[in-house]
Specification:
The protein has about 350 residues and is an alpha/beta fold. The protein has 13 helices and 14 strands. Helix 2 crosses helix 3 and helix 4 packs across helix 6.
């Protein structure tokens, strides 16, 4: 393979040029494409109520993304707060991170191509105002319609919600029960009012939409009617199959594959892979899981061997998000590439190139 001006200029077989790089049996793969990771927030807020220096957080996150073999990342930033959070959280966790990413981009400090994915929590008080403010200042590439009201979608199992929310926030169990009670009381009404407006704002701005945690056929039908293109983390086989039949690309978590199941007790990603209704993997909260999960699925017949497994983290997410210039090793595509070695059965990233320039 030959690169020129950051693009793949030639792909061939046979003896490599004398000045070529011998990979000594390692894999050369397209750079991975991650469309939903909220790991940036974990660098900025490493402990409850502990904010790290924002520019340092962005650099650490960018480095982790790059060394995981990801060359294009959709940074997932949350939009929307409710009575149990503070407005300050929105400002720090979204606007400050967006500003820091812009500074790093302008200074040429980012190793990978960063894009913006807004996670719009539709049952929250300020989701509409917050979304409008963000769109007015920054480019947004993807919006997901999220509703984490306890007792439905991802958190149908309330025991799982108590464990997750208590551990994430450090609140006592009595405090968590109070939050659950309030969110259940107001969630459905707010979501019904806010979601259509978020959808309208996205379509008006030309931003692609993703549903999140669809569970029932009714929820899938709502997503279809709102021209959603991507089904993120459907929680049941029924929802995943209906979403895919309607033309949506289905996304499941790579940690779900690596762990052998969902941490919320929902459908296992491998189940969808076995049924041929899995299109994309997302590293979600563990960037290093993306490549590991793809290799773990290479022997699932419906996936299509290693080429089909790699498509789950390269070509398919590129297609779903309209990125026609990457995701494949093909003439004319961006030279976003990774070198992967296999010590035993575990893939390890040895080198990363973005636009043919070594970045990790």
């Amino acid at each position: 393979m030959v690169t020129e001006n950051g693009l793949i200029a030639e792909v061939g077989e046979g003896r490599a040029p004398e000045r070529g790089l011998d990979l000594k049996g390692d894999y050369l793969l397209p750079g991975l494409i991650e469309i939903h990771t909220d790991n940036l927030e974990a660098h900025f807020l490493p402990r409850p109520k502990v904010l790290w220096q924002v520019d340092s957080a962005v650099q650490a996150y960018d480095g982790q993304i790059a060394t995981s073999g990801i060359t294009t990342v959709f940074d997932s930033l949350r939009v929307g707060t409710d009575e149990h959070e503070t407005r300050t959280e929105f400002v720090t966790m979204t606007m400050q991170l967006a500003e820091a990413l812009e500074r790093a981009r302008a200074a040429g400090l980012l190793r990978v191509d960063h894009r913006t994915h807004l996670r719009c929590e539709v049952p929250t008080l300020d989701v509409l105002d917050a979304l409008e403010a963000f769109i007015a200042r920054y480019t947004v590439d993807l919006i997901s319609l999220m509703d984490h009201t306890p007792g439905q979608r991802q958190f149908r199992d309330l025991d799982k919600y108590f464990i997750y929310y208590g551990g994430k926030t450090g609140k006592s169990m009595d405090e968590v029960h109070a939050v659950v009670s309030h969110r259940q009381r107001v969630g459905s009404d707010r979501a019904a009012r806010h979601r259509p407006t978020v959808v309208e704002m996205a379509h008006k701005a030309g931003i692609a939409l993703a549903s999140h945690d669809d569970t029932t056929l009714e929820e899938v039908r709502e997503s279809i009617g709102q021209r959603v293109r991507i089904a993120e983390f459907p929680t049941t086989v029924e929802a995943a199959a209906a979403s895919r039949a309607a033309g949506m690309a289905t996304v499941m978590g790579a940690p779900n594959v690596v762990r052998g199941g969902s941490h919320s007790g929902n459908v296992a990603a491998v189940t969808l892979a076995e049924q041929g209704i899995l299109d994309i993997l997302s590293s979600d909260y563990v960037p290093g899981s993306l490549l590991v999960a793809a290799f773990a699925l290479r022997d699932v017949p419906a996936v299509g061997g290693l080429p089909g497994a790699i498509d789950l983290v390269t070509r398919n997410p590129a297609k779903a998000t309209g990125l026609k210039d990457r995701g494949e090793i093909r003439r004319g595509k961006r030279a976003d590439l990774i070198r992967v070695t296999m010590p035993g059965d575990h893939p390890v990233v040895r080198a990363v190139w973005r636009d043919a320039v070594r970045v990790a």
